[in-house]
Amino acid sequence: MTETVIEIEIVSDxxxxxxxxxxxxxxxxxxxxxxxx
Length: 37
Hints:
Blueprint: H1 2-33
């Protein structure tokens, strides 16, 4: 049970980091691809 909770927390951390990285890169991606959605 504890291991599962830890795994979920790790996944959440990874998602947060990915979200931060995406927000930094999003303007660049929009520039390169034009309309991006």
